[in-house]
Specification:
The complex is a heterodimer of chains A (about 260) and B (about 375).
Chain A lengths: L7 E6 L5 H8 L1 H10 L1 E4 L12 E7 L5 H13 E7 H6 L11 H8 L23 E3 L6 H12 L11 H8 L4 H5 L15 H4 L16 H11 L4 H8 L7 H9 L3
Parallel strand pairs in A: 1-2, 1-3, 3-4, 4-5
Chain B lengths: L5 E5 L4 H9 L3 E8 L2 E6 L10 E6 L2 E6 L16 H4 L3 E9 L5 E5 L7 E6 L1 H15 L5 H7 L3 E5 L25 E7 L4 E7 L2 H8 L8 H17 L9 H6 L5 H9 L5 H5 L6 E7 L5 E8 L9 E2 L2 E2 L4 H20 L9 H4 L7 H21 L1
Parallel strand pairs in B: 2-8, 8-9, 9-10
Antiparallel strand pairs in B: 1-11, 2-3, 4-5, 6-7, 6-13, 10-11, 12-13, 14-15
Helix pairs in contact in B: 8-10
Classes of the chains: A alpha/beta (about 260), B alpha+beta (about 375).
The complex binds iron/sulfur cluster (3 copies).
One iron/sulfur cluster binds next to helix 7 and helix 8 of chain A.
């Protein structure tokens, strides 16, 4: 059999905490296998060496917050055959998108001694707002299992087995008891994209919505239940939706409806 | 069919049932307390049962409270049914390995027969198992289900109380188990006694009963059982009018009620996962990083998910309205065409475990009412 050229993998960072990139380093058992089958061409968290593009698979972490980054993501797109955005920052703007609901100029004047040195965009936006994205891997941070599945699927030239249904499905598959029904704990599971294997409900907590909105999320019905059945206030509802995926369309809309 | 053989076991001796079954190599699964609910899990002794506890179920609500007696089985259905054990949420179907020279081998999964003893199967749940038998053993025999089902020893428990969400009586599936069990117990507890009236439903059941301390059944025992069952029927919080329901639902694909319920429905799929008769699954192929190893897995899926109806070109049921309509019409209408029975046994799980408390009996009543109104209107005209 003819030896195949190893596909080139590049990891890119924008406004983010590095947590998603670290998930790749965290794949201890699989990391050697990954290094065996792909050429890691750019991965600043692991090595300073940078191989030139083009790249077969680019994993992009972080959101776009500066004019410079808005330019940089275009260059990366041009050099990448497949581009996958990873994590809540890259897919929804991240926790830093909370600034999108206020005037960023005001923050600058409070936080920085010389705000005029700061060149920033008024909004923190997901990668897909700037360039075409082949696939989005959700989560804050992403799941290790899903990342390995994504790379395996890419190498096998198949669609990744990543479902867009609710966290509730994972919760039930695990055999959990529903915390919202048995313990009256507000849970975002019914409107949240699966992927964490129902981590929080498995520890008797409500889902925090780390993976962002599921397909067809019915946030208004869930809010109705939270306020009527679980005595959640509008403030509680706004807080629940305004976290890592605050700028994801469905969550943004729901929080805005309940704003005072 | 009613079985004549049986006996009465005292509370002090009921532990023998579990030890005898364990001695015979059964893994005993039964109700036990976990996460503020009574779930079905592995149990070792009577001490693992939820002694003196009961459940209060309502739409989108479940609560445990202490009873003022030490009853072992005075509550209703667990959050999830026995289908977890007969048709597990996730199973591997086969694995394949690349061989030297470019070929590959496929190893089908070997489903070693399991020996489960299910303790505390309610009448509605038993009916649901019979329905799943039609699905998994009716034509093609699913090897995984078969390996688990054929060895299973069923200890039914007749319900001596009903919840607000129960409606098995109107679905003709309870509260008393009539057949297809090995042993059926009715718990009798009052000032004078705490005992279990046992009916044998199979030879296996008779064999087990022989090994347990018991006395013969007297006429008063049977009378007490009947009284308890009547009381349970009178406690049923809900009912479903199934008269002409099959054709009624089939003829109403555009009824405005579907849109109304879709406004509330979260398409979260909890109802289908909790339902003891829902059986849908998806099949996924996975390859590893090297590409030398592949596996095929089967996992529970639901008509409430978007991916469920994905075909080349898009999703067949992208609206939540079409998903709820599919679920309810399948359960109560097309299920009859497919399997000759209703897909609902009235266990109430989909009502209790729906996060927004959507109630299938209320939905049915809305259809029945709008239909009868229409009929009255046309008569008046
Ligand atoms: S605990 Fe949350 S995720 Fe789990 S079933 Fe309940 S609502 Fe859904
Ligand atoms: S449809 Fe609901 S009430 Fe009927 S069997 Fe399923 S879970 Fe039970
Ligand atoms: S009926 Fe209830 S449990 Fe079922 S999908 Fe809709 S909201 Fe979820």
């Amino acid at each position: 059999m003819k030896a195949r050229r190893k596909p080139k993998l590049a990891v890119w960072k924008f406004a983010s905490c590095d947590g998603c990139q670290l998930t790749l380093l965290d794949c201890e058992d699989e990391l050697l296998a990954v290094a065996d089958v792909v050429e890691i061409a750019n991965f600043p968290e692991a090595s300073r060496e940078v191989a030139r593009g083009p790249y077969d698979l680019s994993l992009v972490e972080g959101s776009i917050t500066t004019p410079h980054d808005a330019e940089r993501i275009r260059t990366i797109r041009k050099q990448s055959k497949f581009l996958v955005s990873i994590g809540a920052c890259a897919t929804a703007g991240g926790i830093q998108a909370l600034r999108n609901f206020r005037n960023v100029r005001e923050f600058l004047s409070i936080v920085y001694a010389r705000p005029d040195y700061i060149d920033t965009l008024p909004h923190s936006t997901p990668i897909a707002d700037h360039v075409f994205v082949d696939f989005e891997l959700r989560g804050c941070p992403i799941s290790k299992v899903q990342l390995v599945e994504l790379i395996s699927a890419f190498l096998g030239n198949r669609k990744p087995n990543i479902s867009s249904h609710s966290v509730c499905v994972e919760c039930k598959l695990r055999g959990n008891t529903c915390v919202m029904i048995a313990n009256k704990v507000p849970c975002l599971g019914p409107v949240t994209h699966a992927g964490c294997d129902a981590l929080c409900p498995s520890y008797n907590r409500g889902c925090f919505g780390c993976f962002g909105p599921k397909e067809t999320p019915n946030t208004s019905s869930l809010s109705h239940q939270w306020s009527n059945g679980l005595s959640a206030s509008d403030r509680d509802i706004v807080h629940a939706y305004r976290t890592f995926n605050a700028y994801a369309e469905a969550f943004k809309k729901e929080a805005t409806t309940h704003e005072p | 069919m009613r079985n004549n053989s049986g006996g009465v076991i005292q509370r002090a001796d009921i532990g023998q049932l579990l030890s005898v079954l364990t001695e015979k190599g059964y893994i005993t699964i039964g109700p036990t307390l976990r996460d503020n609910t009574i779930v079905y899990d592995e149990i070792e002794s009577v001490q693992d049962l939820p002694i003196g506890w009961t459940d209060i179920q309502a739409p989108g609500s479940y609560r445990l409270i202490k009873r003022d007696d030490e009853a072992l089985f005075a509550y209703n259905t667990a959050p999830q049914s026995w289908k977890r054990y007969l048709n597990p949420p996730r199973i591997r179907l086969w694995k394949a390995q690349r061989t030297e020279g470019g070929g590959f081998t496929v190893d089908p999964e070997d489903y070693a027969p399991s020996k489960y003893a299910f303790i505390g199967v309610r009448a509605c749940e038993l009916k649901a198992i019979l329905i799943q038998d039609k699905v998994f053993l009716g034509g093609y025999k699913d090897p995984c289900y078969q390996s688990r089902r054929e060895g299973a020893f069923i200890v039914a428990v007749n319900c001596t109380q009903a919840n607000e969400t129960c409606f098995c009586a109107s679905m003709n599936s309870g509260p008393k188990a009539e057949s297809d069990y090995d042993l059926a117990l009715t718990e009798i507890i009052d000032e004078q006694r705490h005992e279990f009236v046992v009916e044998c439903g199979s030879e296996r059941g008779e064999e087990i009963l022989k090994e347990l301390q018991h006395r013969p059944v007297e006429a008063e025992d049977s009378q007490r059982v009947d009284e308890r069952i009547q009381e349970t029927i009178s406690q049923m919080g809900r009912s479903m009018d199934t008269h002409r329901l099959q054709s009624l639902l089939a003829s109403q694909p555009n009824h405005p009620r579907w849109e109304e319920v879709a406004e509330r429905c979260l398409s979260c799929a909890n109802c289908t996962m909790a339902c003891p008769t829902c059986f849908c699954s998806t099949v996924e192929d996975v390859t590893d990083l090297t590409g030398d190893h592949a596996e095929r897995w089967r996992q529970w899926d639901s008509c409430f998910t978007m991916d469920f109806t994905y075909i080349s070109g898009g999703h067949v049921r992208s609206s939540v309205m079409s998903r709820y309509r599919q679920w309810m019409t399948h359960k109560l209408s097309t299920w009859h065409d497919q399997f000759g029975v209703s897909g609902c046994v009235g266990c109430g799980r989909c009502i209790t475990w729906c996060p927004v408390g959507i109630d299938i009996t209320e939905e049915v009543a809305a259809f029945q009412n709008s239909h009868s109104q229409k009929t009255t209107n046309s008569v008046e005209k």
